[in-house]
Amino acid sequence: MPVECSMADPLTIFPPEIILRILDFSSVSTLASLLAVSKAWHHFIDVTHQQAIYGAESKTTQPPGGTRDLAFLSDTSSISKFYDGTSTWKDLCKRQTLLARNWAARHPVSQESVLQIGNDPVWRFRADFKRRFFISTSHAGGLNVTDMDSGRILWRLPSTHDRDEDAVRPHAHLEYQDGMAIFDREGDAVEVWQAELDGAARGEFRRIAILNHNCQTRGFQLSYGTLCVVSSEGQGFVYDVTKRPPVLTTHLDIEPGAVGHLDQCEDAVIYSIGAKGYYAYDKKSGGLLGILQPSSCTEKYHIRSLPLGPLPSPNDPEHVRHGEDEWGAGMLDGALFVGFSRAGRVFVSPDWRKALCDPSSLATSSFLLECESDGSSFDLGGWLSVRDHRLLFEIEDRIYVVALDSDNGIQDLDHPEHGSFSILTGAAPQLAVPVSYMTLCDDAIMTTYTTLGWRQSISNAPGSNPTPRHETPARIFPTKAIRVVSLAPEISSSTPTAVCQSGSPITKARSGPGQPTDQMWQSQAALLQLVSLLGDEPEEWEDQDAVEDDDEHHA
């Protein structure tokens, strides 16, 4: 005779403290299943203990040691205002879960916006999500502050061609953090400007310092309240920018030959020294912490030609035959360090501090990603972004988003949990030029983007606004704009509205602020043919080969 086995409801036999502890280790999908078990479970989770359950760090991503409220959401980097209106921890959990699932998908839901800023190609740009504006420099010089939502220019500085004392040089590198903008000027100096001082209007900046150096300034990077500057002549500088004006705190003697790329964390700064690898220094003492040499890596993977898939080991272990490869952009994200070379190789060190102390650890735990290019036909080693176990880099006319596992290693090659994909860097191959800035945000990928622009009438006076397009003659020309690929899903539904295909461009786009209507873009193919027949006009598109130190000022 069969024996019936019944299990008592845990709600009836365990105290709430025990159940809450168990739920702390349960996944969000498990919570969803429990809600459907009974009214008692639904009431326990969604009514009595909702804040304790969904507010746990195991269910929502939040700053460590926070104040246990939702105030930190005001500092998120969301282009779509994805967290606006979040009122409960459960609501936050839902939004974060939907967003994480979309990022992890092989074919994520996506929408594209393109923003043309003035008539000159964008060189560098940064986004201020709190103040809702972009700040950018251009190929031709000048600086623009543009409303993130309307595309209206709020304030601007002229180009050096205008011979103004506040002019900004062509191809100026730009750093930005919470209202502070820093860009380089002629003569190995950098200017420091602060937004909205002394009753200034939204988006208006005022200069607070000029930092001069007696050596060739090759690059600088701003974060953690400090500005780090590097010279190729074996010198580094660390400034405390919380002081007004900024104060030099450390003058470093570093390895000569820095190429201009650098990044920092709270206590260390890492400089790229080209073929020699990456040198790490203590920001306070100036002492050398160690060297990250990518050539020591023994583990290598290869990114296949499109469509982009898992990353197999290369058939040819000597895939990259580029002589002495030069390492360029390098970026920190917690324990992770990633570097990018001119031969199109990506160096990944999941625990860079351990690798500095133990070279054998670097050889065994770090790895290289090798790509389909040797850099001979395209200027590689440039921009890079690293965030939330993802790498963003450019190979010829495509930007790759490569997902790592939770330990920042290569995912299971046969069953990857998170999707990797790629997007095009321009509207057409005829327009492709290197990306001059790219970044990963909470809910978007933002890059410069080569496309066709429309002539606008813009005054050179600081603080002026452009004349509306319909009041000026329309004229088409190739340019570089800001492209935003939003991965924010619909909150009310998980049904895709647009799809970013693995290994293919965005399939649905919407016009961004300041851009032509959808009908205008439908004729872009014919316009591109016309441009290719006419050729580029020198005053409208500068030859990339003429750019001095093209990628030398990257941070």
Automatic annotation (TrEMBL):
Residues 494-505 have a biased composition (Polar residues). Residues 536-555 have a biased composition (Acidic residues). Residues 494-520, 535-555 are annotated as: Disordered. This is F-box domain-containing protein. The lineage of its organism: Eukaryota, Fungi, Dikarya, Ascomycota, Pezizomycotina.
